[in-house]
Each structure stands twice: as structure tokens, then as C-alpha cells.
């Protein structure tokens, strides 16, 4: 590489004239035709099932009627967006979506980091493996079953209330009292995913250079100091990447679980943009309006992702792209 | 490891105790469900508080569950979605991962960018629903298989694994006259069994657990996967159909044990596979994590 820089540019260009991009591409396609044939169904899949819906999102700006189709329906501009912003639901949905995401960021996100730190301090590897095996498990159980168990345990007469009355406390209406919804949602989420979430941090910890710990020990650092000054800085880049990704799905709170757990008495705190889109769009066939609501959600989400990435690039040199 | 100071020993003790409690809290709900499912219905209804063992011993709930035609249908449907869907997932993901792991390919980066973009932005539920319905897949099994052919995250994991295979092997195969199909199916895939196992686990579990796509796209109850049947029974509490035959028994109690038995019956396959696949999935998450 360094040798070629010493040769004047024009002479190199004269000797090896680069063919045009189109010619090179054509040659590449001829040589690698089998690879391109393999990629064809993959590209087609992404075009149809991922870019197709992006193209279809235009119905958010059209009075869509299934009989007239995507192209035949008349444009209405931002009418549906205005309707949504002016509706009674807008503030409530936005607040619920943001709060559930924020609580997840505040409680569920650090929980996985903390579990990884605790697990790393376990000396006996058989015990460590046991804890890992047990805590990963709920991640693989379907959300329908998890919700079913929650409904059973948290019902008015369920196990949790039995235990509460047994210890002399008042039973709570966990599933029909809006004040409880967020707690139930976040706590059960931590219960289900904390182990799984810790895997990535454990991996980051195991990648830390052991000599750093030796050096810290020589400097007189105890276990706690080592965690503070070696382990945590060591996993920080991973934590930041995960944080960006988390922020990148800020508006996409787990619609699945909410649909299973909420009911009309908890809409006040449980209804989020995703569940509202499902009700208005799929159940009520209100396609254009709910597509507009969904688009609003995706755009905010995408903007947050870009913002998070930019902030991280500026302040921490860690970035997604 | 050297000697521990008393402070360290205390820390170890607190730490291990915390983790043990976490394990108990994670595991106990499943144990409760297991014990309850085996209990005698009328005794279970009377019982208050934690269960440490089954109250009595009865397979009645399981008999009722296995005599329920809806559940059997759901099981068979889910088996179809898991087997056919996962096979299709692996096939498509392998094609993409192979192509995108070719270093020299000129269109590699543009295609990669096009794919990665879809991880961050999409059309959303409604346009996707309308597309699937335009394609005539509404109320058909294909709606649960084709629109989710590839998970981009899994594609990236598999691509990273393929990139780790030595190019010399491929060059040797090429000299022996192998084309790309032979290289992928006879060389790369057999060499990537651990990552294929991870992919089978991830895709398989997601098909096994999937219910929302079925809720959105399927009307015909004969096509319902297990999870949708479970939803009706666990969430909307309709066990009536199963308890009509039961006579002289506490209906409420019976429908309670039926719920527990259903949870066990639909979780067992995962619990059974889990230990075999566990050693692979941590590896899978790690390969995926390296690339971010």
C-alpha cells in the first residue's frame, strides 16, 4: 500500500485503467452468479415483506378503501395525524408508552447488569451454572403462559393475595387497578428476562484482560474496588451499545404482553400506542387512521435511535454505526 | 485463590444468598403450577397459600386436557408451524448469510445496508396486515411462515459464523470443482452445526411461542396454534367446554387444575429440549454480540 502512494497517481491510472463501475459490476455478477442467485430470494423477501409495508405506509396519508386499493384511494394529507393529535387518547397513549419504556430503562435494564456483576463474583462454577440455567429459563416460556400464570397468581383470590392476607396485609386488585399495571408489567418483565439479559454482560466481563485484575490487586484493591475500577469500566462499551439499542426500541414496548394482561379497567395506564393500533386497525378495520398512529410511533422511535447513537458517538466513542 | 478476608467471606455469603433467592423466585411459580396440576381439584380449591407438594395425586386434569380436540389440534398445528417454519427460516437465513459472508461480492454492502435498515424502521402492523391480505395469505398457514422467513438478527449471527470459516477450505473445494451450492450445503453448513443448532432453537422457540401473528391473520379455528388455544383458556378463561362432562365435581376446582395441566403440557417440550440446547445458545448470543 505504502509503495503505491510513492508512484504518481496519473501514471498508475494510465497503466491500470479502472473499468467503469457498471462494467465491474457486470463482471462481478458473472463470476459470482450463483451467489447472486442465492441472494435473490433473500432480497426479494426484504423488498416484499419489509419494504412493501414501508411503501404501504402511504395509506396513512390517504382515505384508504380496500376496494380502491393503495394507489386509487384519494390523498388527504395529514388529516389522520391531526385527528390523532387532537384526540382524547393521544396524551394518554403517549404517556403510557413513554412511562413503560422509561421504567424498563430505569429498572429492567440495570437489573441485568447487576445480575451479571453478582454472578461474576460467584467462586464456585457449579453454583454459577445452576443460577444461570434457572434464570435463563423463563425467557423461553411463551408470553401467553407467563401472562396466564400472572393472571392466576395475581387474581383477587390468587396466591399472592392469599400470602398477603396471611401476613396480615390488605389484598390488592393487581390486574383491575390501573395503579398496579406498570408495576406488574415491569416486575414480571424483570422476572422473565433478567437472566437472559445478563448473558451479554457476562461475555463482556470474560473478555476483560485478567492482568488488569492482577494490577489492581497489587495496588491493594479489594473485590469491591476491582468491580468498581476494572469490571464496570470494562463492560461499559457493551452497556452503552445495549442502551442505544434499548432506546432504539423505546416506543415499541411489548404490545404482546399488554394485550394479554390489560382489560378495559386498566386501559388508563396500560393502553399504549401499539395496542391502540391493534384495536383500531385490526379489530375495527380503521386502516388509514391506525396506520397514521403506527407511523407516528415508528418515526419517533427512529428519531430517538439516531439521537441516542449521535449522543453516544459524541460523548463515549461507542456507536452503533 | 488465596485467603479471603472476613469482609470478602461476608460478601460471598450475601451474594450467594441473593442469587439463591433469585433462583427460588424464578423456579417456584413453575413448581407451584406442577404441584397444583397434579392435585385433587376439591382439595386444591380449599387450600390457601404456598404448595410444597401435590395435594393428593390425580391425573384427571391431564386426561381432560388430552381429551380436548381443540388442544390436540393446536398441538398438531404448532408442530407444523415449528417444523415447516423453522426449516424454511434456516434455509432462507443460510442463503442470505452465505451471500453476505462473501468478502469480494460487490453488492454485499448495499444489500447489507438495505437489510439492516429494516431492523430500525418498518411500515408497522397495519400496512403489513394489508400486504399479507393482498397476497391472499389471510387465514392461511403461510401467513405464519412466509412473512417471518428471516430474522435479521439471526441472519447477522449466521453470517458472522460463516465468516469465521477459513477461506482456504473453500478455495480447496473450488479447485476440486465445487460450485457455491456445494460449498454452502456440503461444506459450510456441516461445519456450522453449533450455530445451526442455535438458529433452530431461536426460530423453533419463536414459532412454538408465537400467538400474535396467528391472532391477527387466522380466523379459522382449525388452523390455530397451541398458544392461541391456550390464550382462550388461560386468559379469557373458557374451560367450560372441557368441564361439561365432569359430573358431581367442583367445576371451579376442575377448571383450575385444567389450567395448570395445560401450562405444564405446553411447556414440557421446551423444558425437555432446553438442557440439550443450552450449551449452544450462549455461544449464539455471544457470536451475535461480537458484531453488535
From TrEMBL, chain A:
Q: Name the GO cellular-component terms.
A: plasma membrane
Concerning InterPro entries, the annotation shows: MetI-like (IPR000515), MetI-like_sf (IPR035906), UgpAE/MalFG_permease (IPR050809)
Membrane topology designation: Multi-pass membrane protein
Q: Where are the transmembrane segments?
A: 34-52, 98-118, 130-151, 194-215, 227-253, 287-308
Q: Which PROSITE patterns match?
A: ABC_TM1 (PS50928)
Annotated GO biological process: transmembrane transport
Q: What keywords were assigned to this record?
A: Cell membrane, Membrane, Transmembrane, Transmembrane helix, Transport
Compartment(s): Cell membrane
Reply yes or no: does the keyword Protein biosynthesis apply: no
Residues annotated as domain ABC transmembrane type-1: 94-308
Name of the protein: ABC transporter permease subunit
Q: What is the lineage of its organism?
A: Bacteria, Bacillati, Bacillota, Bacilli, Bacillales
TrEMBL record, chain B:
Say if the entry is tagged with keyword Transport: yes
Query: How does the entry describe its membrane topology?
Result: Multi-pass membrane protein
Source species? Paenibacillus aurantius
Highest taxon listed in the record's lineage: Bacteria
Q: What is this protein called?
A: Carbohydrate ABC transporter permease
Q: Name one GO cellular component term.
A: plasma membrane
Query: Is Transmembrane given among the entry's keywords?
Result: yes
Coarse class of the protein's main subcellular location:
membrane
Report domain ABC transmembrane type-1 positions: 75-275
Q: Which family does it belong to?
A: Belongs to the binding-protein-dependent transport system permease family.
Q: Where are the transmembrane segments?
A: 18-38, 50-66, 78-99, 111-130, 183-205, 257-277
Q: Which UniProt keywords apply?
A: Cell membrane, Membrane, Transmembrane, Transmembrane helix, Transport
Q: Which GO terms describe its biological process?
A: transmembrane transport
InterPro entries (alphabetical): MetI-like (IPR000515), MetI-like_sf (IPR035906)
Q: Where in the cell is it found?
A: Cell membrane
Amino acid at each position: 500500500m505504502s509503495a503505491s502512494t510513492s508512484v504518481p497517481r496519473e501514471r498508475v491510472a494510465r497503466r491500470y485503467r479502472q473499468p467503469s463501475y457498471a462494467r465491474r459490476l457486470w463482471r462481478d455478477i458473472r463470476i459470482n452468479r450463483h451467489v447472486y442467485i442465492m441472494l435473490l430470494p433473500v432480497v426479494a423477501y426484504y423488498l416484499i415483506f419489509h419494504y412493501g409495508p414501508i411503501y404501504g405506509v402511504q395509506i396513512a396519508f390517504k382515505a384508504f378503501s380496500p376496494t380502491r386499493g393503495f394507489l386509487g384511494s384519494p390523498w388527504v394529507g395529514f388529516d389522520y395525524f391531526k385527528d390523532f393529535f387532537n384526540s382524547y387518547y393521544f396524551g394518554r397513549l403517549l404517556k403510557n408508552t413513554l412511562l413503560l419504556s422509561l421504567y424498563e430503562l430505569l429498572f429492567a435494564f440495570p437489573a441485568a447488569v447487576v445480575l451479571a456483576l453478582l454472578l461474576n463474583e460467584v467462586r464456585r462454577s457449579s453454583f454459577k451454572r445452576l443460577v444461570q440455567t434457572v434464570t435463563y429459563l423463563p425467557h423461553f416460556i411463551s408470553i401467553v403462559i407467563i401472562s396466564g400464570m400472572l393472571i392466576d397468581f395475581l387474581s383477587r383470590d390468587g396466591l399472592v393475595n392469599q400470602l398477603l392476607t396471611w401476613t396480615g396485609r390488605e389484598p390488592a386488585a393487581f390486574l383491575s387497578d390501573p395503579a398496579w399495571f406498570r408495576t406488574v408489567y415491569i416486575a414480571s418483565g424483570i422476572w422473565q428476562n433478567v437472566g437472559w439479559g445478563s448473558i451479554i454482560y457476562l461475555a463482556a466481563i470474560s473478555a476483560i484482560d485478567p492482568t488488569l485484575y492482577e494490577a489492581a490487586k497489587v495496588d491493594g484493591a479489594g473485590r469491591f474496588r476491582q468491580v468498581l475500577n476494572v469490571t464496570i469500566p470494562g463492560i461499559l462499551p457493551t452497556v452503552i451499545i445495549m442502551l442505544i439499542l434499548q432506546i432504539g426500541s423505546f416506543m415499541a414496548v411489548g404490545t404482546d404482553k399488554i394485550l394479554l394482561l390489560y382489560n378495559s379497567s386498566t386501559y388508563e395506564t396500560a393502553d399504549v400506542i401499539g395496542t391502540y393500533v391493534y384495536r383500531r386497525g385490526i379489530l375495527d378495520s380503521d386502516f388509514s387512521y391506525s396506520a397514521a398512529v403506527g407511523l407516528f410511533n415508528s418515526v419517533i422511535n427512529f428519531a430517538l435511535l439516531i439521537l441516542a447513537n449521535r449522543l453516544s458517538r459524541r460523548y463515549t466513542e461507542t456507536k452503533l454505526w | 485463590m488465596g485467603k479471603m478476608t472476613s469482609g470478602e467471606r461476608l460478601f460471598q455469603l450475601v451474594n450467594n444468598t441473593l442469587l439463591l433467592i433469585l433462583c427460588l423466585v424464578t423456579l417456584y411459580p413453575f413448581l407451584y403450577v406442577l404441584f397444583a396440576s397434579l392435585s385433587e381439584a376439591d382439595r386444591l380449591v380449599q387450600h390457601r397459600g404456598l404448595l410444597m407438594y401435590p395435594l393428593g395425586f390425580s391425573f384427571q386434569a391431564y386426561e381432560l386436557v388430552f381429551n380436548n380436540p381443540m388442544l390436540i389440534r393446536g398441538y398438531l398445528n404448532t408442530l407444523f408451524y415449528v417444523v415447516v417454519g423453522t426449516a424454511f427460516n434456516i434455509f432462507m437465513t443460510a442463503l442470505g448469510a452465505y451471500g453476505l459472508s462473501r468478502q469480494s461480492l460487490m453488492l454485499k454492502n448495499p444489500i447489507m445496508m438495505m437489510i439492516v435498515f429494516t431492523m430500525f424502521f418498518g411500515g408497522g402492523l397495519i400496512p403489513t396486515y394489508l400486504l399479507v391480505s393482498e397476497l391472499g395469505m389471510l387465514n392461511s398457514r403461510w401467513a405464519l411462515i412466509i412473512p417471518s422467513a428471516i430474522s435479521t438478527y439471526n441472519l447477522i449471527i449466521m453470517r458472522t459464523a460463516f465468516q469465521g470459516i477459513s477461506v482456504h477450505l473453500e478455495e480447496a473445494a473450488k479447485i476440486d470443482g465445487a460450485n457455491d451450492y456445494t460449498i454452502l450445503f456440503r461444506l459450510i453448513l456441516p461445519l456450522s452445526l453449533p450455530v445451526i443448532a442455535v438458529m433452530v432453537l431461536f426460530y423453533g422457540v419463536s414459532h412454538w411461542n408465537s400467538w400474535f401473528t396467528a391472532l391477527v391473520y387466522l380466523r379459522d379455528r382449525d388452523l390455530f396454534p397451541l398458544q392461541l388455544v391456550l390464550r382462550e383458556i388461560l386468559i379469557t378463561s373458557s374451560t367450560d367446554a372441557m368441564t361439561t362432562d365432569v359430573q358431581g365435581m367442583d367445576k371451579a376446582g376442575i377448571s383450575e387444575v385444567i389450567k395448570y395441566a395445560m401450562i405444564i403440557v405446553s411447556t414440557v417440550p421446551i423444558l425437555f429440549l432446553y438442557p440439550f440446547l443450552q450449551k449452544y445458545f450462549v455461544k449464539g448470543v455471544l457470536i451475535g454480540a461480537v458484531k453488535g
